[in-house]
Design brief:
The chain is mainly α. The protein is built from two helices and no strands. The mean pLDDT is 77.
Length: 74
């Protein structure tokens, strides 16, 4: 019997009782992480879109107030 405590060869576990994990999965880079990263990218894209819309609206309001100020000075 081996004394190895490797995740893919744990002591006390018979063969086939645990799924063999790839190196990426052991480093927390498995398929579930890809989904998490995709979700985070989607949330970031949505946030950037909202921020751009707010900035555009604020810019339009600023231009409108500049136009009003120029018209009142004439």
């Amino acid at each position: 019997m081996t004394d190895s405590k490797n995740i893919n060869n744990p002591v006390g576990q018979g063969g086939g009782q645990r799924k063999r994990q790839s190196r990426a999965e052991r480093q927390n880079n498995g398929p579930h992480r890809n989904l998490d990263r995709q979700g985070a990218a989607d949330r970031k894209a949505e946030l950037v879109r909202k921020m751009r819309e707010k900035a555009r609206a604020a810019e339009e309001v600023g231009q409108a107030s500049d136009d009003d100020a120029a018209a009142s000075q004439s």
